[in-house]
Amino acid sequence: MAQDGKRGVTYQTVDAGYFEKRGLTRYAGVASLWALGVGAVISGHFSGWNFGFSTGGWGGMLVAGMIIAVMYLGLTFSIAEMSAALPHTGAAYSFARTAMGPWGGFFTGLCENVEYVITPAVVVTFITAYINSIFGFDPAYSPLVWIVFFAIFVGLNVFGLELSFKVTMVVTLISLAVLIFFWVSAIPHMDFNRWALNIGVGPDGAAVELPEGGGSWFPFGFSGVLATLPFAVWLFLAIEQLPLAAEESVDPARDMPKGIILGMITLMVSAFMIVLLNPSVVGVGSFKLSSSLEPLLDGLKAVYGDTGVVLLGCVALTGLIASFHTILYAQGRQIYSLSRAGYFPRGLSITHPTFRTPYVAMIVGSIVGLGVMLIIWFALGAEEAGASIGSVLLNMAVSGAMFSYIAQAASFILLRRNAPHIKRPYRSPFGVVGAALTIVIAIVTLGYQVQDPNFTKGVLWVLVWFAIATVYFALVGRHKLVLSPEEEFAQSKGEVVYRTH
């Protein structure tokens, strides 16, 4: 046992079997990492992003998307550099642990934990909305749909890394094919001026429909652009999960930067196409999409009619399923890394003896996410919860993400300044400037998120989450830390890159 008085933590010695029970398998190459990154985000191109039309109009959504793309470029190039230099499953926690010590690592990991436990809950609410629309199910039974989807996709993630990555690749490719199919279908049915620009501003300052279109690109002005930033985040949210696969990557120093950058390029192209085409389809429009839970399905129905609604709806579900599956993967690895190092209870990091997957972390994380959903559902009542649960959860996920982005960008700047000796197989072309822009845009996004009344509800849940976890770490976790790969790297000041225990 070793104490670090300056840091206020204690490291305990563990036996040789500790890491044997927590082993992972290397499998992922560039293609698998690309699919993991794109698959995690792609649901945001099927649902969620479109709520921004109500705060910014079409032009506001476009410019907000560009600003958020700049934030994510700064972030992804920063984490590409850090993940190649620190190839550990801990990702955000690992970066912050090396840059800011155990407490900095813990709080950064906690922010990311909120994001990865809650984001699957957000996605499954959109999945449920699509299913209810397709098959005409009563929304009162939505919790049953949540439970079924969690059970199926946690199971797929548990039963082997190779299976999980193959499923990820298949559903990601299908999702992109669906989007391309929609783009090609939508182009002949576009009337941009009439439908994309059909939002005006009413006497109360809220969005109103312009029956003939022809409205302003920016009906709410520049403040509307800024108010739309939290919704534009959904076009890229979770691409930063890729470093969580570092210890399951064949060559993380080489492949991780390539996977992140290729994924970001793919998502920027897709984001522009969906923002342009979905509201421009005749019969759809920005105003209708501003409150739709299934915007892509609305676009497909407008082009092909209701005759094939079941088939079209099932096709439109693929993107949501891709993200649900891949973020459950990230959730498991994120909890696993914090548990293996002792920040969370150590039992959460035990891996399956046959499949070598962190099954305990995935099951417990999913139960927590599902539990939050059920508490909100029964506390508010089915009718009110059905209308607001997705927005509350989305605000929880986005707020956790913004805090983790600020911490990761700050970690990048600190590592550049204080640890120039660390070997960096890849260096961000945007450097400190890119990381600083990430911080500024994330802070502005949080500032405008506060103006959403659902943010208050969401952030209260996040604060409860933080309070419980902080009490545990202060009283228990900080006295039971383990020299996992992330901790060894930080303790050695970068001399120990990775060691198989």
Automatic annotation (TrEMBL):
It comes from the Bacteria. The keyword Membrane applies. InterPro entries: AA/rel_permease1, APC_superfamily. One of its GO terms (molecular function) is transmembrane transporter activity. The chain crosses the membrane at residues 27-46, 58-80, 141-160, 167-187, 217-239, 260-287, 307-330, 359-380, 392-415, 427-446, 458-476. Pfam families: AA_permease_2. It is found in: Cell membrane. Gene3D superfamilies: Amino acid/polyamine transporter I (1.20.1740.10). The keyword Transmembrane applies. Keywords: Cell membrane, Membrane, Transmembrane, Transmembrane helix. GO terms for cellular component: plasma membrane. It is a multi-pass membrane protein. This is Amino acid ABC transporter permease.
